[in-house]
# Entry
Amino acid sequence: MNDDLLRVLVPLPVVLPLLAAGTSVLLARRQVLQRALSLLTLVALVATAGTLLHLVDSDGTAVVQLGGWAAPYGISLVADRLSALLLLVSAMVLLAVLGYAIGQGVADGRRSTLAVFHPCYLVLAAGIAMAFLTGDLFNLFVAFEVMLVASYVLITLDGGKAQVRAGMTYVVTSLLASTLFVTVIGLVYAATGTVNMADAAMRMGDLPEGLRVALGLTMLIVFGIKAAIFPLFSWLPDSYPTAPSPVTAVFAGLLTKVGVYAIIRTQTLIFPGEGAIASVLLVLAALTMVVGILGAIVQDDVKRLLSFTIVSHIGYMLLGLGLYSVAGLAGAILYTVHHIVVQTTLFLVAGLMERREGTSSIARSGGLQRVAPLLAVLYLLPALSLAGIPPLSGFLAKLGLLQAGLADGSSLARVAVWAAIATSLLTLLAMTRVWSGVFWGPVAEVVADADTEDNVDVGVARTPRLMVASTVVAVVGGLSITLVAGPLYGLTTRAAEDLVDRSSYVTAVLGDGGGGTR
Amino acid sequence: MTGNLSLALCIGVLYTVGTYLLLQRTLTRVVIGLGLLAHGANLLLLQAGGPAGAPPFAAKDGSAGTAGVVGGTADPLPQAMVLTAIVIAFGVSAFLLALAYRSWTLSGEDEVQDDVEDRRIARLEDAAAHVRQPRPEDEL
# Structure
């Protein structure tokens, strides 16, 4: 019974949004129907992901071979604890942001961009779901492309000068990463004769060590561009802030995390325990954290500041992966969950602040806590969580990582742990700068923005209830991570055990033979 | 696995030229460079499928050979992957060209625009230089 259910449930998160996206294009002139369709689809996605997580957690990894082709030849969709958990969190975040976007769209009433927004948003959801679920390297490439093509349209939705300039940077960088990805798939295929991840994992052991490390590092570069890790992040703070607020929020929460997921999946499954790569990961983690947060501190634009904090906090997830222990990976997964929710929430709040003040500049804002006390609370909670103040989710996730780092005992891990602590303090500084600049001080006059380079709609101080409600839901969601922290940490630990002991994944995909049939 | 030298050289040239064009400031060249890089990557995938010339389904004597081995059947997977990659690259190139055209319409230049923050800093620098060095006519 469960098998039949799973055969439907595993592909559903990909198929459902894609079908809905197609229907949504047809409904372009009927906005109410279009909105209802998007909402229903994402509610169904949340329900599917929730059921999937429950089943996978109790019964173990679920695999569906698409088209009935056996594992190394056909495409496998694999739902293990890690992918099901991230799928569920992503679906919830997508739903909350959709509510926000609908609220904003209704208030601003731009019909043409809204008609394009819904199909693209659904395609984005499908791409993200496919990236989490696929067990095939080439299919992962396709998933990334589906997700990225939707994101290209979303980031240039307004079509103004700033969006086109930022969109150009974003598209060219992503395309370069995609080309590199095809290259590395070609190399993996030439070396192992397979693109199925589980099969490649088995065959990788026969290759000489140098080749393994080279392939692993190339793959790290590919996903490193998508995840914005240290030397490869400069496109992110440049392009994200120009998009409309809900789009930036969902990009900030999800797109880089899909890159992080791909790094975790490939490095643990295909290139496990390569000492050289683990050291590189720890060094990159420390540099990403410190360089990112130093960039954030000096920014004046709230959205740019938050974009730099995304970069910085990607480092924490790399730290957990670089330790390559169950505790480290469990911490990294918990941190990913926490960061998806909190970073999205912060961008939603930044969008509300921008509407209120008519600018996203810290210097030109002030006194918002007197005008909008609710907004102040909504900002403060996720901001403190990002900085890691107990008992919020950021503290718990960081604590898990730091304990894992100290348990590792190597000097490199200790350096990375110190970098993590310093970054945490500097994040608090950055968040406090926004707080004192935007919420304290004399009330700033809302003026027409002379700077045409940011896309702030002046004169829309009216904030729709739906936008605020969606933000409140997101904040409460972030707080509830603390409440369910115990079971959640248990779940991430089990997911991390699956990652370290690859046999459950490989057996589920390839059957009991484990070594492939070719 | 034996490779094809001329194909390998071709891949090398495409990557080199593509990378060179990608580093240019003109958007048209960037687009062409990305196209060449994509072609190089596709050829690489094809090269990964083993030598050409094997029969598509079964050898002449009717035996089904091992994929990728001379005398066996041709490996269909890299070709399927290359087709997918070509379609994706085609679609994205179309989008990129539209974006480049939009950029040209808005700015009148076929160039990658400066970073906003860079320009702000450059303006501040100019202003500071202005204060430090009075203009020649002020010195009278």
User: Anything to note?
Assistant: Chain A has 21 helices and two strands.
